[in-house]
Amino acid sequence: MTHFLLIYIKKVYLLEIWSVSLFLKNNIIFITLILHSACFYKETTIVDKLHTKKIYYNNGQLEYQSEMLDNVLHGETKYWYENGILKSLVNYTNGKLHGKQYQYYDNGTTKYVINYDFGKKHGYEIWYYKNGQIKSQKEYSYDRLVGNIYRWDINGNIIFWK
To answer: Which residue has better confidence, 36 or 150?
Structure first.
């Protein structure tokens, strides 16, 4: 017999912060009253011990989504820019980075890709310019730098290697 547990939680937060400033100029008192308010909400979906957490921007756009197992990051974690473009994608296994970590510029082009093996850099770490040109490349073996380091200028000309 299979047991299935699904819990859905949605929390809405309203934050209001008032700030007041006073200053005197030419015998006139100036008062500035500013209301800073934010409304965002979080969602948590629980299936057995696997949780999916989501946080949203004020405009309703998804900002963050992660999968967790027993309150430890396990699975995909994603961040988005407020305009909806993916900002980063990373995978976790039992709370440790595992697999490729992707970071993106706000125009959607890749900023860097780093490979992890259970929390340790293993494989290539490649950074890119916003125009898509490779900026640098390093190779790791379980957090130890191995091989050569390469750097290119924004036009693709190699400027450093070691």
So the answer is: 150
The tally of domains found in the chain comes to 1
Q: Does the residue 107 lie in any domain? A: yes
Tens digits of residue pLDDT in 18-40: 444 555 556 665 555 454 444 44
CATH number for the domain that contains residue 79: 3.90.930.1
Question: Cα dist. 133→96, 111, 130, 155 in Å?
Answer: 29, 10, 7, 7
Range of the domain at 96: 45-161
Burial of 65 (0-12, 13-18, 19+ CB in 10 A): middle
pTM of the model: 0.72
Residue 32: the pLDDT is: 52
pLDDT over threshold 60, residue 60:
yes
